Amino acid sequence: MLRVSSCLVLAAAMALPLALAPPAARAQDDLLKMQENAANVVMPTIDYANTRYSALKQITAANVGKLQVAWTFSTGVLRGHEGAPLVIGNMMYVHTPFPNNVYALDLDHDGQIAWKYEPRQDPTVIPVMCCDTVNRGLAYGDGKILLHQSDTTLVALDAKTGKVVWSVKDGDPGKGETGTDAPMVVKDKVFIGISGGEFGVRGWLSAYNLSDGKLAWRAYSEGPDSDLLVDPQKTTSLGKPIGANSSLKTWEGDQWKIGGGDTWGWYSYDPKLNLIYYGSGNPSTWNPRQRPGDNKWSMTIWARDPDTGMAKWVYQMTPHDEWDYDGVNEMILADLDIGGRTVPTLVHFDRNGFGYTLNRETGELLVAAKYDPAVNWATKIDMDKSSPTYGRPEVVAQYSTDKNGPDNNTKGVCPAALGTKDEQPAAYSPDTHLFYVPTNHVCMDYEPFRVSYTAGQPYVGATLSMFPAPGGTDMGNFIAWDAAKGKIVWSDPEQFSVWSGALATAGGVVFYGTLEGYLKAVDAETGKELYKFKTPSGIIGNVITYEHAGKQYVAVLSGVGGWAGIGLAAGLTDPHAGLGAVGGYAALSNYTNLGGQLTVFAIPGS
Amino acid sequence: MLRVSSCLVLAAAMALPLALAPPAARAQDDLLKMQENAANVVMPTIDYANTRYSALKQITAANVGKLQVAWTFSTGVLRGHEGAPLVIGNMMYVHTPFPNNVYALDLDHDGQIAWKYEPRQDPTVIPVMCCDTVNRGLAYGDGKILLHQSDTTLVALDAKTGKVVWSVKDGDPGKGETGTDAPMVVKDKVFIGISGGEFGVRGWLSAYNLSDGKLAWRAYSEGPDSDLLVDPQKTTSLGKPIGANSSLKTWEGDQWKIGGGDTWGWYSYDPKLNLIYYGSGNPSTWNPRQRPGDNKWSMTIWARDPDTGMAKWVYQMTPHDEWDYDGVNEMILADLDIGGRTVPTLVHFDRNGFGYTLNRETGELLVAAKYDPAVNWATKIDMDKSSPTYGRPEVVAQYSTDKNGPDNNTKGVCPAALGTKDEQPAAYSPDTHLFYVPTNHVCMDYEPFRVSYTAGQPYVGATLSMFPAPGGTDMGNFIAWDAAKGKIVWSDPEQFSVWSGALATAGGVVFYGTLEGYLKAVDAETGKELYKFKTPSGIIGNVITYEHAGKQYVAVLSGVGGWAGIGLAAGLTDPHAGLGAVGGYAALSNYTNLGGQLTVFAIPGS
Asked: Where would a tag sit more exposed on chain A, N or C end, judged by fewer CB atoms within 10 A?
């Protein structure tokens, strides 16, 4: 069945790009232009480069201390609120976790609800969402608002009326396939990935026609080359062709069919290179003994042609993962000065605790360094181009959950499975040339166990417990990172993991939220805290800023949850529940409560 | 079964007051003193007189425009949030609708959760809560926090630790008996009423010992004199003894046993007169043809001795109710200048649209006047002491739902069943001598139908639709009322019913909330709007003010719901659902969303 469906998809993928070959589409032109207008937030990544930088600068390091709450909005839904609203002209588009309601708020009329979309989804999808009922937000293109529902339905809504223009089902929740990511619109297509790494879902990226919702192509993370949309000779990894059957030969038998490599993170786009970038997640199961080999192309950075889906280059960060270090975190595109020359880089803060800087045109690895000193599972990434292990991590045997065997509890691995950073996106400021990274400072004990695959049932195969990294009780840091050098510039400790997306601004202020619920503003140069405010619930959303009627606003969703907050969000008490997070973050319930609110800030009178 | 249980209760009621006869208790002394400290909010009515007036005056009419949000807290529960937190010293106690969680927030530590109480109640109570899953708040006494849960459990929590000191079940949700009211502590007792007028629940007031939760006495609204705790000779109505069997003779047969008269409003206390005051609600069923007679003592103001429960006086405002004009609204105790002499008055804004001023010592009726000009079901209250209908409303035949017969839809009755005001309490300022009243400007069509009683099943017997009063689209007003003269002094129109409790302050500012979610501040003298802020959700909570570390704060719960917001809260769409409210308030969903948040305001830097 898996094979049949993949073949059908393959046929579509190969045929459609040529058959439909669209002219330069209006949506792309619109978005390329619109993303430059800092008054708006037209895409979930703020810009195609995923910098999460805003050119707005009414709010500065000098005056951010005067910030106050301008208005608020309850989403009407509890549990984890990831992502952020879009703002286009006088309209703000707010999404919610399951059931994935969408509210269009009229900023000219005090946030009045212009329209709402409240889908009726089968709630049986909830138990197959591994880490809370999150949704990372909406995309906009060609007058449509795009939503990827939990049940994998991709729906296009008329941005003016909220009416459904088209909708299409991308996956099957009955097999554990769910939708959590924010779509990305590039040219005439909309891209979505799939969640389900804890259910053995083989990951893919789908490209749908923005005009009518027809599938344009689909590219899998694992399987035969035809499923991957790779060219064995032209697709490269670290400068070399990947060769034929690059994925199949790294799996035992048919295991790739339930091999994970899901694609639920963020998508970036370089219009000049005409490449989209994203990462694939953990290989399934979490028990590494059950899947010998490198398990390609899980844990991989992908660079693809958005028109055809064809991969230009790949880079697998964590071959044969033993710790659930998904590679899905965002790819930030920035032109950096590396050793005196300006390089078109891609910067990626991986769950595995290494910050990677690559040449985004070629996939060349430039820098790979730990962005939390606690990281201990590997000593380093081998940067010796002549080495047979070039580009691979040097794993510390003590922390190998495979080597320690299925009955052995591997103690004190850093970072924990949720990574030194999870999906919460970092920001980059072209003013300071620094990356602002929300991080986890959390370690784990990891005990793999044998597990059998049944479609739609958890396929995890490990019992975890999480705890603060040694030497203290803090579980997070908000750091500034020099990606050219691979160095931490400053680090602000936080009691809990920083599980919100960062925002850098031309005003010299960087914003982030905390799991206790604080919105914080810090100096972009020094990290000095300039402002904080306790919002109604823990923040796992991404901070945005926009301008309306000439005034700059800052906005963030509150609503504790996500993996770190799953204990609170789902009312779990067993410390091993929530894939090990419940015990680690138990103290969070002393600080905040379930919620679902948008808080909008401004400087009064300015 | 009803008879048996009432006899048992009667035995307890007669025996306990004598047997236990307590000395002047510490709780009373504490509370009498504590309510004078305006820094705190020690009872749900702010003071025993239910004035909802605060002597705090850092925030004034001149500076209230500078108000900003200081901090926020998500209650973690959606649906209607009535009532308000208590504030005692450095602790704030926040309650929620079902499941009736209680959170103690440490104001010295940024609202950190010092303890929480999260009862596990059987959710089958939800469908027998007529008008949303509301709870009107907590009481404090003798180091305990008192909570009346939906399932009628009265629980005493240690105010320092949240541990259960005692708990007692007051009623049976299986019969439609539910708890929604805020308890009131007077001396050594805690008082609670019962909800269930739409389920034929015969109302009572229970007095429990604050020390151990034992029932001290229980007084019914209907039935034999021994159940009522009345003295046929000494208990008076409008100056005359009520005589024997005053209730029984106003009912046909045993109908009083399922006769309503529930007691879910607010309780007041005059320590000098040693009287507590409260009102009883609608007679059951809503079909008046099924229950001939005056249906005493439904729709009645009660003055009782808190030690023994014995009634001193009663006054029935709406004999033989035909419109569901419950008499439960709060009794505000104020000494007013009436015709040149200072009178100890009780002022009550009834659902029936009349504002009543009585001598609270004697029950003498001083003033009764419409507080919304739209009121049309009665021309006036007969104030002629020599008249045989003295004190009774002069009902307009056109609007009699009884006279129009069971198959006839009585059109255009004003106010609608939810009254010119419902439970949301008014405030009184001794500075301006004005009452500030949140009102509904809503009318209805009322179609009675025959209904049979089954325990635990709805026993409503009428189909309603509600709509704005003629002549406009506004559904509410916030008014200032002269209770000595029975005149509106000023009136601020509102698009929707004002369903939040008011707060008057020594700063010359009056606060209230709106169903769209605005907290508003108006000038106490003129009603001029001085400030507004859009909170996350519609406000049906009561505004409070407190002082902490020398600074004045204003706080209010958001969370749309209650009767007016039941369509939104419960996701109802049939316009006749929600006892007629759903159609009338349908537009509300264009303005706000489900929520559950506390928003706390202060003037920055002051």
From this structure: N
Q: Are A152 and A170 in contact (CB under 8 A)?
A: yes
- Using the beta-carbon criterion (under 8 Å), do B78 and A78 form an inter-chain contact? yes
Q: Report the C-alpha dihedral over residues B331, B337, B339, B345, rounded to 10 degrees.
A: 20
CA distance A547 to A254: 52
CB contact under 8 A, B590 and A76: no
Count of A-B CB contacts under 8 Å: 98
Per DSSP, helices labelled H in A333-485 are: none
When pLDDT is averaged across residues B47-57 and rounded to a whole number, the result is 98
Q: Using the Cα atoms of residue B186, residue B190, residue B195 and residue B197 in order, give the sign of their dihedral.
A: negative
In the predicted structure, residue A18 carries a pLDDT above the cut 60: no
- Which of A539, A593, A606 is the best residue to mutate to test the B interface, defined by the most B CB atoms within 10 Å of its own CB? A593
Give the mean pLDDT of A303-322. 98
**B72, B95, B106, best to mutate vs chain A, most A CBs in 10 Å:** B72
- pLDDT over threshold 50, residue B24: no
- Taking 90 as the threshold, does the pLDDT of residue A1 lie above it? no
Report the DSSP beta bridge partners of residue A147. A155
Residues of chain B with Cβ-Cβ distance to A113 below 8 Å are 589-593
DSSP conformation letters of B237-292: ETTEE--TTTTGGGSSTTGGGG-B----S--EEETTTTEEEEE--PBS-S-GGGS-
Give yes or no for B113 touching A (CB within 8 A). yes
**For position B8, what pLDDT does the model report?**
38
Phi, psi (rounded to 5 degrees) for A17: -55, -40
Decide if B603 touches A, using CB distance below 8 A. no
Pairwise CB contact (< 8 Å): A595 & B597: yes
Q: What is the DSSP letter of A203?
A: P
Query: Between residues 68 and 87 of chain A, which touch chain B (CB distance below 8 Å)?
Result: 68-69, 71-78
Q: CA A52, A57, A61, A66: dihedral to nearest 10 degrees?
A: -110
Contact B56, B547 (CB under 8 A): yes
* Percent above pLDDT 90 for chain B: 93
pLDDT in tens, A364-379: 999 999 999 999 999 9
pLDDT at A36 over 50: yes
Residue B557: which H helix or E strand, with range? strand B551-558
A535 touches chain B (CB under 8 A): yes
Name the residue with higher pLDDT: B35 or B4.
B35
Q: DSSP class of residue B504? A: E
Of the candidates B282, B256, B255, the residue with the CA atom closest to the CA atom of residue B417: B282
B589 and chain A: CB distance < 8 Å anywhere? yes
pLDDT for the residue numbered A12: 38
Residue A449 pLDDT level (bands cut at 50, 70, 90): very high
The identity of residue A410, as a single letter, is: T
Tokens 């939800």 belong to: B126
**Are residues A189 and A207 in contact, defined by beta-carbon separation less than 8 angstroms?**
yes
| pLDDT given for residue A27 in this prediction | 58
CB contact under 8 A, B112 and A590: yes
pLDDT (average), residues B246-264:
98
Write down the catalytic residue from B324, B372, B422, B482: B324
C-alpha A353 chain-centroid distance:
15
The answer to whether the Cβ–Cβ distance between A591 and B113 falls below 8 Å is yes
Residues B149 and A452: their CA atoms lie apart, in Å, by 46
CB of B604 less than 8 A from some CB of A: yes
Q: What is the pLDDT of residue B17?
A: 38
pLDDT tens sequence across B323-345: 999 999 999 999 999 999 999 99
Nearest CA distance, B87 vs chain A (angstrom): 18
- Say yes or no: A536 contacts chain B, CB-CB below 8 A: yes
CA A558, CA A562: separation in Å to the nearest integer?
A: 12
